[in-house]
Specification:
alpha/beta, 10 strands, ten-stranded mixed sheet, single chain, globular, Hydrolase_4
Length: 383
C-alpha cells in the first residue's frame, strides 16, 4: 500500500529550488539563525525549528507594530524563503499583520526530505513556535496556503477549532485530482483537501485565477463550495498560477478580508484545544482515513484546563464579553453563496482587467519571477 502512495507522491513531486536561494548562519545558542543573501530588516528574524519528524526547518517571522492578527503562510512548490522573503515583508506591511513563513523539510536550508507527512509536521512546528515563542493565540491566527501549501493548511485547519480564518491561494482539491480528472477520493491520494475542508470551522477565503493552466480554477471553486463558512471568493479574471499577486484586486480583496476578520469577534473561549506533553495537537481531523501518519493515534482532547491557562493572558478584552453572543455574518456571505463564479457580478474594483498591471503597491517590482512556483504539469507528463 505504501508503494502506491509513494508512486502518487512521486508523480505529484516536490521541487525545492536547487541551490537554495538563501543561506543561514547558525547562532551559538538557541533556535535563532541569520538569513544571508536577503536584505536585513530590523523587524524580521529567523529560527530553526525542530519537527516531530526529527527535521530542522527554517522559519522567518515578520513583526508588524500594533498587529492584532498573525498570518501563518505555507508557500507553493519550487520556492523557498529567499524567494518569498520580499513578498512576506510586503504582505505584513500592507495587511497590518505579523507573518510567519517557513520552508518545508528539504526546502531551502531545512533538513530532511519533502513529503506529505513531513509538511504536516512542518506547519505544526511553525504553529507551535507562534504560540510558545511569540505569544500568539489560536483565535488570532490566519492560515494561508498557496497551491501545494493548501495541503498542510487544510490539514491543520481541520484539526484546530478556534482559528480566526483560512486563506487558500490557487489551492488543489488533492494531488491525484491535479493529474487526473477523478471524481472520487482514493486511499492512496495525497493532500485530500476536498475531504478536509468541510471540517474547517472558521471563515475561508479562496483566491484562484480563471486562466490557471497548472491547477484549474475548478479546484478553487469546488473547495469553496465545500466550505462550512464561506467568505466572498476572488476569481481573478485572466490570472494564472504564478502571478495573482500582480493584480490590483488581489491585495485589495485581502485587505478587505483581514479588515472583516479583525472586526469579527474571536471564537468562543470554550473548548480550547490542548497540547499534550508529547507536543501533539489534540484536535484530530474528522476524516480519519486521510492520515496514514501517527496523527490517528493522537489522544482525545482532555477536559482539564488548557495548559496555557497557567500563563496569564495579556488581555481578555472583549473575549469574555463576547461569549454567548451570535457571531456576526462574514462580509456578505449570503450574497456570495448565490453563485460560485464571482464573474456574474461586476466588482466595484478593477477586477475586470484581463492583464495585470505592472505595479500594485510595489508588488510588481517585488515579484522576482516566481513563475516556477509550481510545476504540477511537468510532473504529470514527465512521470
Amino acid at each position: 500500500m505504501g508503494g502506491v502512495t509513494s508512486t502518487v507522491a512521486a508523480r505529484f513531486a516536490f521541487f525545492p529550488p536547487t541551490p537554495p536561494s538563501y543561506g543561514v548562519i547558525e547562532k551559538e545558542q538557541g533556535e535563532m539563525v541569520e538569513l544571508t543573501q536577503v536584505p536585513r530588516r530590523s523587524n524580521v528574524e529567523a529560527r530553526r525549528l525542530q519537527t516531530k519528524k526529527g527535521n530542522g526547518i527554517i522559519a522567518m517571522y515578520v513583526r508588524h507594530p500594533g498587529a492584532k492578527l498573525t498570518l501563518l503562510y505555507s508557500h507553493g512548490n519550487a520556492a523557498d524563503l529567499g524567494q518569498m522573503y520580499e513578498l512576506f515583508v510586503e504582505l505584513s506591511s500592507h495587511l497590518g499583520v505579523n507573518l510567519m513563513g517557513y520552508d518545508y523539510s528539504g526546502y531551502g536550508q531545512s533538513s530532511g526530505k519533502p513529503s506529505e507527512q513531513n509538511t504536516y509536521a512542518d506547519i505544526e512546528a511553525a504553529y507551535r513556535c507562534l504560540i510558545e515563542t511569540y505569544g500568539a493565540y489560536e483565535e488570532d491566527i490566519i492560515l494561508y496556503g498557496q497551491s501545494v501549501g493548501s495541503g498542510p493548511t487544510c490539514d491543520m485547519g481541520s484539526r484546530l477549532s478556534r482559528l480566526r480564518a483560512v486563506v487558500l491561494h490557487s489551492p488543489i482539491m488533492s494531488g491525484l485530482r491535479v493529474m487526473y480528472p477523478v471524481k472520487h477520493t482514493y486511499w492512496f491520494d495525497i493532500y485530500k483537501n476536498i475531504d478536509k475542508i468541510p471540517s474547517i470551522k472558521c471563515p475561508v477565503l479562496v483566491i484562484h485565477g480563471t486562466s490557471d493552466e497548472v491547477v484549474d480554477c475548478s479546484h478553487g471553486k469546488q473547495l469553496w463550495e465545500h466550505c462550512k463558512e464561506k467568505y466572498e471568493p476572488l476569481w481573478i479574471k485572466g490570472g494564472n498560477h504564478c502571478n495573482l499577486e500582480l493584480y490590483p484586486e488581489y491585495i485589495k480583496h485581502l485587505k478587505k478580508f483581514v479588515a472583516a476578520i479583525e472586526k469579527r469577534p474571536p471564537p468562543s473561549l470554550e473548548n480550547i484545544p490542548k497540547i499534550d506533553e508529547n507536543s501533539n495537537l489534540l484536535d484530530p481531523p474528522v476524516v480519519t482515513s486521510d492520515r496514514l501518519s501517527t496523527d490517528q493515534k493522537l489522544e482525545k482532547p482532555r477536559a482539564s484546563v488548557d495548559q496555557r491557562e497557567s500563563k496569564p493572558r495579556q488581555s481578555t478584552d472583549c473575549r469574555e464579553r463576547d461569549n454567548g453572543k451570535p457571531r456576526s455574518s462574514t462580509d456578505r456571505r449570503d450574497k456570495s453563496r448565490k453563485s460560485v463564479d464571482a464573474s456574474d457580478k461586476p466588482r466595484l474594483s478593477v477586477d475586470q482587467s484581463d492583464k495585470p498591471r505592472k505595479s500594485i503597491d510595489r508588488f510588481g517590482g517585488m515579484m522576482r519571477s516566481v513563475c516556477n512556483i509550481d510545476c504540477f504539469k511537468v510532473t504529470a507528463t514527465g512521470g
